[in-house]
Write a structure and sequence with these properties.
The protein has helices spanning 15-27, 48-55, 70-78, 102-109, 114-119, 124-143, 148-164, 167-182, 203-213, 237-244, 267-274, and strands at 6-11, 30-34, 61-65, 82-86, 90-91, 185-187, 190-195, 220-224, 228-232, 247-249, 254-258. By secondary structure, the chain is α/β, with parallel strands linked by helices. A 7-stranded mixed sheet has the order 5-10-11-9-8-7-6, sandwiched between helices. It has a 4-stranded parallel sheet with strand order 2-1-3-4, with helices on both faces. The protein is globular and about 55 Å long. 38% of the residues are buried.
Length: 277
């Protein structure tokens, strides 16, 4: 990749994205930072071309991290720009599934192997742990035969990134997750967690709670306010996607949906799919 003619468009909405932005800064890559939360869409980026050219007036290639937008991508290509996609989710409008996490794809694309990462001041092991957690959370670390001490170190680093994203908001999320967890319901092995909070997400802190309470993945339905719904560690993710749209992640073992109109899929219909044998 020619850094002098390339610009990155990347959100700053989770730990993996934050790590990508840190790497981009270290290699001197021009970057447009999206302020959109999870569920970002490319068409919502105002003055996108203007921001890209302000970041790097010589831009010929745009690499976009986890902000889907096929129509906007066509528009960018129509302006003579090469568009590269870094993603691993499946959305309503486009399938971007990839066995590698976005962080791993970014490192591959920009030639940041372990030796170069070290030269840039990064710990390759911690980079790998962030990528693993993004692919499959703690369970992915266990698949990779991390020791308990290594898992603790990886999660401590992840927690540091979490706080860097906004300590006050993250503390609110953790408190809301604890309350929701105490009120959880269980049906035939399915854990159902509901939170009334509408402007924050409890999914990440709930994942940490699950990791502390169980030795392996558990199927969990998370109903988050009136706008968010997630299912983690399920064999029904693609079935939920086909039924209700949204997006899949975690190697098609997780499903989620974010709604702007506050009309989520009926909870009992989701549960019926999850409890099918």
């Amino acid at each position: 990749m020619d850094l002098s003619t390339t610009t990155l468009v990347c959100p700053r909405n989770d730990e993996e994205a934050l790590t990508i932005l840190k790497l981009a800064k270290a290699i001197g890559l021009a970057t447009v930072v999206s302020r959109q939360p999870h569920g970002a869409k490319l068409f919502k980026e105002k003055r996108l071309i203007g921001h890209i050219m302000e970041a790097n007036e010589n831009t010929q290639t745009v690499a976009i991290v986890e902000i889907p937008g096929p129509e906007t991508e066509v528009m960018l290509r129509g302006q003579g720009l090469e568009v590269l996609i870094i993603d691993h989710h499946r959305y309503d409008e486009v399938d971007r599934r990839n066995a590698k996490s976005s962080l791993e794809q970014f490192r591959d694309l920009f030639g940041i192997d372990d030796e170069k990462a070290k030269a840039l001041g990064f710990d390759p092991w911690l980079l790998a742990s962030v990528a693993a957690i993004d692919r499959g959370f703690v369970w992915e670390l266990r698949k990779m035969n991390y020791t308990q001490e290594e898992i603790r170190r990886a999660l401590d680093h992840y927690r540091t990134l979490t706080l860097e994203l906004g300590e006050e908001r993250r503390l609110r999320e953790e408190q809301a997750a604890e309350v929701a967890w105490e009120r959880r319901e269980e049906r035939d092995g399915l854990i159902i967690v509901r939170s009334a909070e509408n402007d924050i997400s409890v999914r990440d802190p709930l994942s940490f709670i699950l990791a502390k309470n169980f030795d392996g993945p558990r199927e969990v339905l998370i109903v988050q306010g009136k706008r968010r719904m997630y299912v983690q560690d399920t064999s029904h993710a693609t079935e939920l996607f086909d039924a209700f749209g949204g997006f899949t992640f975690g190697g098609d073992r997780c499903w989620g949906i974010l709604k702007s109109d506050e009309i989520l899929p009926p909870e009992e219909e989701v549960i019926a799919i999850l409890l099918k044998k």
